[in-house]
Amino acid sequence: VQLQASGGGLVQAGGSLRLSCAASGSFFNINVMGWYRQAPGKQRELVATITSGGSTNYVDSAKGRFTISRDNVKNTVYLQMNSLKAEDTAVYYCNLRSGSGAYQYWGQGTQVTVSS
User: Fold this and answer.
1) CA 30 to CA 53: how far, in whole Å?
2) Residues with Cβ within 8 Å of residue 82, at least 6 apart in sequence
3) Are 34 and 68 contacting, i.e. CB atoms less than 8 angstroms apart?
């Protein structure tokens, strides 16, 4: 399984970015795709997840600003990020895990930098 993330970049505070992550290979239809991020000197943290059925989960700091969605035909997950803040600066990683949690895969990471 390969996850190819794209869409990161440099944006001013208050701006928007849309991340995409396409999954290829063989994996279970029932799965959870999501985005995590890791800022310098900090642990990787969950940002948002979405199940193959469409149920979503967000970290509190992302609620109301970020929207996760997916296209099950294209096996792609998206993260629309609005009202970006300097503290959103991090490397963002996409993740795919099986519904049971027994297997998971990571993308290569994409840098998001928000200037204040």
Assistant:
1) 8
2) 16, 65, 66, 67
3) yes
Nearest to 35 by CA among 112, 89, 92, 84: 92
Q: What is the pLDDT of residue 27?
A: 81
Average pLDDT over residues 39-61: 97
Contact 95, 75 (CB under 8 A): no
> Which pair of structure tokens corresponds to residue 50?
């979405």
| Mean pLDDT of all residues belonging to the chain | 95
Place of tokens 């290829």: 24
> What is the C-alpha separation between 91 and 40, in angstroms, rounded?
9
From the list 64, 92, 91, 88, the residue with the least C-alpha distance to 78 is 92
End-to-end CA separation in angstroms for the chain: 37
Contact 29, 52 (CB under 8 A): yes
Torsion of CA 5, 7, 8, 9, to 10 degrees: 150
pLDDT of residue 78: 98
d(CA 72, CA 15) in angstroms, rounded, equals 28
